[in-house]
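User: quick one, fold this
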Amino acid sequence: MRLVEWNVAMSIQTKAHLLATLQPSIAVLPEAAHPDKTGPPLRNIGATSMEWTGASPNKGLLVAAFGDWTVRPDPTHDAGYQWAIAAAATTQPGDLVPVGRHIVRCAEDT
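Assistant:
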């Protein structure tokens, strides 16, 4: 698994090609716009799923999965937190990957 965290400063649309060079399995992207805006460039570089939280559609926290990985909201996610998201990434059950204040938990689908 390659986990990338990158503050994209509200411009992932113009930086997606740079993210692709990092070949992430999971990308945690603070200051990203809602997937309605960021989805097309991320899908163009191979994003398979995305989860997002934020108060403004122009700036929030986005988690994107690539390749065989998928990401979905974890049941512990509290939408009241604007800059934190609990998300479960799946492909290899049982892993737990903490990164700073973001946690991506890998678990079996049920």
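User: anything notable?
Assistant: The CA atoms of residues 8 and 42 lie 13 Å apart.
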